[in-house]
Amino acid sequence: MTSRHHATTTAATEIDTETISVALPSNWKDIDDDYWSIEAADILTRYGVVALTLSSSKSNSNSDGLISSQIIEKANKSADSRLEDMQSRISNRGVDPNGIEDGPFRFAEIICRDEGGLRYDVPLPWLGGGNDDTNDDNKTNDQVGSGRIGAPLTNMEAEGVTGLHEAMDEIVPHVLEAMWSRDQDDIIDDIALNSDRNSYVAASGYLINKPGSKSQNWHKDGPDAGFIDCFVPLIDLNDELGPTAFLLGDEEDELVPMLNKGNILLFDYRTIHRGQGNTSEDTTRTLAYAVYRRRELDKAKNESGDVHNFPAALTLEYD
User: Fold this and answer.
1) In the sheet where 2-6 sits, what is the strand order?
2) What CA–CA distance (Å, rounded) separates 246 from 254?
3) pLDDT tens digits for range 153-201
4) How far apart are the C-alpha atoms of 308 and 173, rounded to whole Å?
């Protein structure tokens, strides 16, 4: 993994990709010591972002990711199929599915986020674990914020999504448990957790960035604590493909982690970031995302998920 770093601070205070990265051993599933999750939680708490990669060894190379290439390949095909299907449904409504003639659009299953139709958010039902015990009879795994994803996945799409979500959920909760369990008693004393996990997935999907897209403005995803974004690139990142940039530290150093496909990037909703423009000639950059929510905060506020970034929208289920 490489990085592009624009720093104005001294060497003693510079933040680079190595600073915010944790390399998991290739046998991380087989060892009892979760030292890597504690280290990752420390970095995420301090800098607001952490990259999880796979240690290089004789059996793998630096190009290997935490999530297997087979799972990533199936997820990529799933993303392409889902985007094509949703755009076909939009076209059947007499609306420009590329967002060029009619401008950006929002449906429950697909969101066009720019005027040129080059950035898409494709929300998905969460098919990993951890959401079965939300204690909300009205919330299901196809619920995203205040809306519901109605259009079903094809069998091929569901297979690609399930494998990816299960692989993400094998890793991410370890870090969140290490981070959020530290101050659990400081949130609200009278909350009795009914689950071994202190997180659930409030939203998930694919972010698709096509050639010619422009850079986003610097922004935070929200002002509230207890939301963590999880990004998994489905393609090896480079400068041209529009990787996510962050402003970190008191000096607001710009850091652009260059992850290989299958590695994981976690960042706090409150961390300043932006998706950069895709300047490549013909390569689309797709990444999978999941928004992990701290469970006890929902119970404290009597709310569920992120209804601000994911408001209710019309569904394409019946098109």
Assistant:
1) 2-6, 253-258, 244-248, 273-275
2) 6
3) 999 999 999 999 999 999 999 999 999 987 655 444 333 334 468 899 9
4) 23
* Residue 161: strand, helix, or coil: helix
Q: Name the nearest CA neighbour of 100 among 210, 249, 243.
A: 210
Q: Which pairs with CB-CB distance under 8 Å and at least 24 residues apart come from 185-189?
A: 187/296, 187/297, 187/300, 188/296, 188/300
Helix (H) or strand (E) holding 275: strand 273-275
The burial class, CB within 10 Å (0-12 / 13-18 / 19+), for 217 is: exposed
- Closest to 257 measured CA to CA, from 221, 294, 292, 232: 232
Q: What is the pLDDT of residues 228-285, one digit of tens each?
A: 999 999 999 999 999 999 999 877 889 999 999 999 999 999 999 999 999 999 999 9
| 126, amino acid identity | W
Instruction: Quote the strand ranges of 41-129, DSSP E.
Output: 49-54, 111-112, 119-123
Instruction: Yes or no: say if 125 and 153 are a contact pair by the CB < 8 Å rule.
Output: yes
pTM confidence score:
0.87
Taking the alpha carbons at both ends of the chain, their separation in whole angstroms is 42
Q: Give the integer Cα–Cα distance in Å for 169 and 64.
A: 19
